[in-house]
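Take one protein record:
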Amino acid sequence: MTVLYEDNHIIAVNKSSSEIVQGDKTGDQPLSETIKLYIKEKYNKPGDVYLGVAHRLDRPVSGVVLFAKTSKALTRLNEMFKNHEVTKTYWAIVKEKPEQIEGRLEHYLTRNEKQNKSVAYDKVRSDAKKAVLSYKLIAHSDTYYLLEVNLETGRHHQIRCQLAKMGCPIKGDLKYGFSRSNPNGGISLHARHIEFIHPVSKILVKIEAPVPENDSLWKAFEKGQK
């Protein structure tokens, strides 16, 4: 865990693809608990440390995750995410080149709880939620393509599902049709950048998460974008 931003009200960290944001049935220690311990030790806090989860990333996804250190900040952040006042930009590595180098995808997603998977449809369905994102091809290597993705909605597995529906499953994402897994068990989807008006101070906050350190393809793409 690397802290990217911290003040009295919020803390943002760079999550690795092996970490879970909140506790689940695996029993593995979640990122939220790791951060609580970090705050407790750093500030010598007695008793329980308050930490609110403002949003989540899937376990195999890396990148910036935002937490609230006060209930006031959490309430406001929850409203901001709900009202789409937080700009989230992702990077995704895919093997197939998209037909258009940039575009807007609009699908209707249903969620299969048993399989923990979403399915994208082109037409409206009564059991589906509308999912919208925009993407742009920003770099490529000999065999892979780097897409920059901006979410307009926040649905279950949205980027993974919609890019796969477009014929561009994310590298390492077996669940959505990629041919083989990544060595670290994660997928090549990274929450690169988050931007919002601070819930308390009202200043503009921009946070960028460096790509995974131990991945030469990610590092090459990052270097090319500087």
In short: The chain has a mean pLDDT of 95.
